[in-house]
What we know:
Elements: H1 6-30, E1 39-43, H2 46-53, H3 70-77, E2 80-84, H4 93-96, H5 101-111
Parallel strand pairs: 1-2
Helix pairs in contact: 1-2
Protein name: Reverse transcriptase Ty1/copia-type domain-containing protein
Organism: Microthlaspi erraticum
Amino acid sequence: MVSHSSAESEYRSMVVALREIKWFRRVLAGLGIDQSKPTQLFCDNKATIHIASNPVFHERTKHIESYCHAVRDAVQEGVIVTDHVRTEEQLADILTKALGRAPFQYLLSKLGVRNLYAPT
C-alpha cells in the first residue's frame, strides 16, 4: 500500500496499533481487569492526530480507505485517546529509523535497555 502523505502513513500505523490495543483490552477484560478508561495512543504527527480526532470527513482525507477510520471511531467511542509525543521522544523510532549514537542511546535508556557487559 502506498501512502500519499506522512500523515496517512502514520494513520495506517495507528490502525495496526488499534487492532493490538483492542485485542489486549479484551484479554485484560477477560482477566477481570477494568477497561473503563481509554488507552493512550501516542503519535508524533499532529496532522494524524487531527484526522483521528476530527469526525468531519475532509476533502484532504477522502483518499484514506474507510477501514482506516476505525481509529476515528475508537476515539469517539472512548476506546483510545490520541496524544502527541515529540519526535525526539518517540520510542518506536528506535525500531524504524537510522538514528545517531546520542538519540539511539537516549531511546535505549528510555526503554530501560542496559549493556550487561559495560563496566559499572
